[in-house]
Structure to design on (500 residues):
């Protein structure tokens, strides 16, 4: 027992302080952001008062006696500011990761402002306070959302400007050196917008030399996994990303223990095998926990709701897409009067059921016949065929593909129930024939016009990454996720990111 106490005391004496420099930096940053947002909230309230009582937007104020000075709203402003600040903290606004999108911030701002304003109005009624103008509450809601959104956009721009110059970067160590870990390191090394700096990786050495990159190696090897604790002690590490293959996860408890000992944040990058089983429910057999895999959630009433939403959106936007479709079809017909405007191709849909997909023709008429002669030039991985400068694509077709206008006829497939607005992209039979067993999980749902793959990078991602994103979508579907994917697809289409 004494020996165990001695070991515990020794481990405690060599451990890091309770609060790491990263904790102090994060706490200081969150406090500063809270104060900044508080000032923005008060300024937005003052702007709303000016718009309502001085500019007199909305219904005119005929009775001069109804005018209220801003000072009359001070108690309400204070309650609203404190309530909104608390709600923002509760919603995780100040704990968003560096890689969070502007849409993540905006959604929290809108919901938090709505909740805080509703609670403030309740407080006014409970205290029987005078609410001189209901319209000012609408102005407050709008002005606060605009002010906080502009503030976050400005902050994101400032942060990215600093990160590109090497200021304020988080020092990251990756645990692992195989396929998954290399993908993580490539993202860290070449994506500066997330504010990370890759120190190197820990695990299988490239050779016997320590703290170097071997010839032909682009990432620095810091040491073997057995030296992880020593590496953490010697270096200033802000975050550890564990990217081990599933068969090496016996090392996870020790890696996590060391990260917690040094109070360093850690993340686990799921292996493709694991992601296929990430939705589980826990049951108990006496004292033994049993895990049961959950099926995809787009079924039953969820499917009915999703299908109804598709039909409503298509109907509401019909004048827009019909006009674009008509102009594009006319351009194709004028460029080649003898060739068909619409291209039909067999694809594999839900549960492996084949169907005909419709697209505006962007290639020469004998494109399918030429495909076999171009297989050696395929630039995609896995069961995909992609050539960046495909010689079969026409000049007009290249523009239509860049803006994804060629996909518009697939709205007819959506109306027929063969496709959905959002879902895994359908593939041709030849590509599906090359699937591995776990790839077939993407066929459990109705294919879509756009999906997480298109919104996250489109043709720039690998085939396995595409399948992983599709499986995630089928297991985590919600109407809110569909809305986010459609919004994320807009800049991908407008800027032609990864499309060819």
């Amino acid at each position: 027992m004494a020996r165990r106490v001695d070991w515990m005391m020794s481990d405690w004496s060599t451990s890091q302080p309770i609060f790491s420099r990263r904790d102090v930096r994060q706490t200081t940053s969150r406090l500063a952001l809270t104060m900044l947002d508080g000032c923005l909230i008060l300024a937005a309230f003052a702007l709303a008062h000016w718009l309502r009582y001085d500019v007199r937007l909305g219904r005119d104020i005929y009775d001069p006696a109804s005018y209220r000075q801003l000072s009359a709203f001070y108690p309400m402003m204070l309650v609203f500011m404190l309530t909104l600040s608390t709600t923002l903290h509760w919603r995780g606004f100040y704990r968003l990761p560096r890689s969070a999108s502007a849409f993540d911030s905006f959604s929290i701002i809108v919901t938090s402002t709505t909740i805080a304003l509703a609670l403030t109005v309740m407080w006014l009624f409970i205290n029987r306070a005078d609410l001189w103008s209901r319209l000012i509450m609408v102005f407050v809601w709008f002005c606060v959302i605009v002010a906080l959104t502009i503030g976050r956009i400005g902050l994101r721009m400032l942060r990215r400007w600093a990160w590109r110059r090497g200021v304020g970067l988080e020092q990251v160590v990756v645990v692992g050196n195989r396929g998954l870990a290399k993908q993580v390191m490539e993202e860290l090394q070449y994506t500066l917008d997330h504010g990370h700096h890759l120190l190197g990786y820990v695990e299988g050495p490239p050779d016997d030399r320590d703290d170097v990159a071997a010839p032909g190696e682009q990432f620095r090897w810091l040491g073997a996994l057995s030296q992880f604790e020593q590496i953490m002690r010697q270096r200033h590490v802000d975050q550890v990303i564990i990217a081990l293959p599933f068969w090496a996860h016996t090392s996870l408890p020790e890696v996590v223990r060391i990260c917690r000992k040094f109070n360093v944040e850690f993340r686990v990058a799921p292996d493709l095998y694991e992601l296929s089983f990430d939705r589980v429910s826990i049951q108990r057999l006496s004292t033994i926990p049993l895990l049961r895999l959950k099926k995809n959630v787009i079924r039953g009433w969820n499917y009915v709701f999703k299908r109804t939403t598709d039909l409503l959106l298509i109907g509401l936007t019909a004048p827009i897409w019909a006009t674009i479709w008509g102009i594009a079809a006319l351009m194709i017909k004028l460029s080649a009067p003898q060739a068909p405007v619409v291209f039909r191709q067999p694809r594999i849909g839900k549960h492996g059921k084949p169907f005909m997909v419709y697209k505006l023709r962007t290639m020469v008429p004998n494109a399918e016949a030429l495909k076999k002669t171009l297989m050696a030039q395929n630039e995609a991985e896995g069961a995909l065929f992609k050539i960046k400068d495909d010689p079969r694509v026409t000049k007009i077709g290249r523009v239509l593909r860049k803006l994804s206008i060629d996909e518009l006829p697939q709205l007819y497939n959506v109306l027929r129930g063969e496709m959905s607005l959002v879902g895994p992209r359908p593939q041709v039979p030849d590509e599906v024939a090359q699937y591995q067993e776990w790839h077939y999980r993407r066929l459990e749902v109705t294919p879509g016009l756009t999906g997480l793959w298109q919104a996250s990078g489109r043709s720039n991602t690998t085939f396995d990454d595409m399948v992983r994103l599709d499986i995630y979508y089928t297991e985590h579907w919600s109407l809110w996720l569909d809305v986010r994917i459609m919004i994320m697809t807009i800049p991908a289409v407008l800027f032609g990111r990864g499309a060819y």
About this structure: The radius of gyration is 28 Å. The longest helix spans residues 21-54.
